[in-house]
Write a structure and sequence with these properties.
Structural class: alpha+beta
CATH class of the largest domain: Mainly Alpha
Strand content: 15-25%
Low-confidence stretches: 598-613
Number of strands: 27
Distance between the termini: 12 Å
Shape: globular
Number of helices: 14
Radius of gyration: 24 Å
Helix content: 25-40%
CATH architecture of the largest domain: Alpha/alpha barrel
Number of domains: 2
Mean pLDDT: 93
Length: 613
């Protein structure tokens, strides 16, 4: 049986990798080497790609939640025989606290089964499948440890219940009584040069992980509106941060579809420069300035010298550039959605919006860039120089079109942003002739956008020059200061996008988009807040905040008709959108003389408590 719906999964992270656990107790995704490594549990993408389940042997009902201020998941199974809780965590390094959380990882998945009442028969099934399900390892048991080695990876599983091995699987059946605890620890290590997989005591590993996450959360005390949602989203973004480098991946998964049965199924386990400025803003608003500083250090190292070639738009978590895409043809894909892809060929595209995102991020961090390191100065100068030239060129746009390049309005606006921020930096970046050249180019871009981006017949700024197609990406114009949100043309654009692309609070990116794109909806919240329409903005935020799953998690998109979450999961872009929208609402409330903090709205669906297997 393939895993359940995308939104039925919980998210675990340790600063190196992520695991997804469904509400029926099955780990259906884990790439233990690092976020973009090959999976050992991949049932999200095919029945035979590996999983690890722990669940009652008979019928059950579930209720779950994260332990407060952690990414440690507790699922309670109620059965006719009694109740048990399964606590799941990707273990943090013992003793890791505060900003050290996630910098190193032992590569351990921990599961603890606790008896709450009665006597519950429990069944464990462990079926690792290496290399995205292509390799079945022979499992062997020695001294209570089940070992599996295949190619470059190996796993070791130890538990408090006897494990029976049969070929490529292990199983156990045991009864858990009230007050009893059974712990299971699964350690990962490279086959060569990695040492033995760590197998810490399960209970102590969970306790250390809880303490570690809470120490991190204690350093980030956001006090604006929608505090609970912002704190949860900030923790999700931290969970999607690769600790050794500080880079934030776009999502924890690959090839979860934008449309069920469709072929727009991309690998999002990489770091997009496009998201960079918004990520920094979100970390800043969520009171995470240290993480923001690490982000900027990472990008300055990854990008190097800016030459005449297109600026790279995405990287691996350690700054790798070549992310060549290939299909895993042996996998059927989530809900039959093929192809299943590893790598992402968007790395070869020209997307000129990245120029603005880097310089906007630098301007945000300007007080921390004084004095400015020579390599950072050269990077930013190179970006400004490229913007002065590349704004005239078509590109693939921020939605990464794979057909023809176009003159996308959002790309032009971000070139304007790059030049505007460079001019603001002034002598810190260039001599007077440089600043004058950047200012002249900035004014040219602005004039072109105002002329060719506006369509009189449509009555709005459209997605590309001389186009009649609406695109939600133009909502970024007020967010970077290109136009005020209450500018008559901008206001008309916002209204038309909401009417034609919106439904029940969700905005599609364009008319043919199969579902609502979460961050676009939060952009509209921010635009309304900037326009002074605080009540409308708050009402829309509340609608969107209620769209999370029961654990406060978003995918990339949400079906406008059914409410089903679609796309890779969890999606950093969506959570970043929530944080930044909450920050805009807080600022708008300050301007309006209203309280800046407000009670949180419910963030889950209470009906899920009664979900049945």
């Amino acid at each position: 049986m393939q895993s359940g719906r995308i939104s039925e999964h919980g998210f675990l992270a340790d600063g190196r990798s992520a695991a997804l656990v469904d509400r029926a107790g099955s780990v259906n995704w884990w790439c233990p080497g690092r976020f973009d490594a090959a999976s050992v549990f991949g049932r999200l993408l095919g029945d035979d790609a590996g999983h690890w389940s722990i669940r009652p042997a008979g019928d059950f009902r579930t209720e779950r939640s994260y332990l407060d201020d952690t990414l440690v998941l507790r699922t309670v199974f109620d059965t006719p025989q009694g109740s048990v809780a399964v606590t799941d965590a990707l273990a943090l390094e013992p003793g890791a606290r505060g900003h050290d959380v996630g910098v190193r990882s032992p590569g351990v998945l921990v599961r603890v089964v606790s008896g709450l009442s009665g006597a519950v028969p429990v069944r464990l099934e462990y079926r690792p499948r290496f290399e995205y399900g292509q390799v079945t390892a022979l499992l062997t048991e020695d001294g209570g440890v089940v070992r599996a080695t295949a190619g470059a990876d190996r796993l070791a599983l130890r538990g408090d219940a006897p494990l029976d091995c049969a070929g490529g699987a292990a199983s156990a059946e045991f009864t858990v009584r009230a007050g009893e605890t059974y712990g299971f620890t699964l350690g990962f290590a490279p086959t060569y040069g990695g040492g033995e997989p760590a197998l810490p005591d399960a209970g102590r590993a969970v306790a250390e992980t809880v303490t570690g996450w809470r120490s991190w959360a204690a350093l980030h005390d956001y006090r604006g509106r929608h505090r609970d949602q912002v704190r949860r989203s900030a923790m999700v973004v931290q969970g999607m941060t690769y600790g050794p480098s500080g880079a934030v991946v776009a999502a924890a998964t690959t090839s979860l579809p934008e449309q069920l049965g469709g072929d727009r199924n991309y690998d999002y386990r990489f770091v997009w420069v496009r998201d960079f400025s918004l990520t920094l803003q979100a970390l800043w608003r969520a009171a995470c300035p240290d993480e923001a500083n690490r982000q900027f250090s990472w990008v300055s190292r990854a990008m190097g010298v800016i030459g005449d070639e297109p600026v790279p738009i995405m990287y691996g978590v350690q700054g790798e550039r070549d992310l060549t895409e290939h299909a895993l043809r042996h996998l059927p894909g989530y809900a039959g959605s093929r192809p299943v892809l590893v790598g992402n060929d968007a790395w070869t595209q020209r997307q000129t919006d990245v120029l603005g995102e880097i310089l906007d991020a630098a301007w945000l961090m300007r007080h921390y860039l004084d004095p400015m390191a020579p390599e950072v100065r050269e990077l930013l100068r190179g970006m400004a120089d490229r913007a002065a030239v590349d704004w005239r060129r078509p590109d693939a746009g921020m939605w990464e079109a794979r057909d023809a390049e176009r003159h996308y309005v959002s790309s032009k606006v971000q070139c304007w942003t790059a030049l505007d921020r460079a001019v603001r930096f002034g002598p810190r970046l260039g001599d007077p002739s440089d600043v004058a050249r950047w200012a002249a180019a900035r004014d040219e871009v602005r004039a072109a956008v105002l002329d060719r981006g506006w369509n009189d017949r449509v009555g709005a700024y459209t997605g590309a020059f001389d186009s009649d197609q609406l695109d939600a990406s133009v909502l970024g114009m007020p967010l970077v200061g290109f136009l005020p949100a209450d500018d008559p043309r901008m206001r008309a654009t916002m209204d038309l996008i909401e009417r034609r692309l919106g439904h029940d609070g969700l905005l599609r990116r364009w008319a043919g988009d199969p579902a609502g794109f979460v961050i676009c909806s939060f952009w509209l919240v921010s635009c309304l807040a900037l326009a002074g329409e605080l009540d409308r903005a708050e009402a829309l935020f509340d609608q969107l905040a209620a769209r999370v799953n029961d654990l406060g998690l978003y995918a990339e998109q949400i079906d406008q008709a059914t409410g089903e979450q679609l796309g890779n999961f969890p999606q950093a872009f969506s959570h970043i959108g929530l944080i930044n929208a909450a920050g805009r609402l807080t600022e708008a409330a300050e301007r309006a003389g209203r309280p800046t903090a407000a009670p949180a709205v419910p963030t889950g669906a209470a009906a899920t408590k009664g979900a049945r297997r």
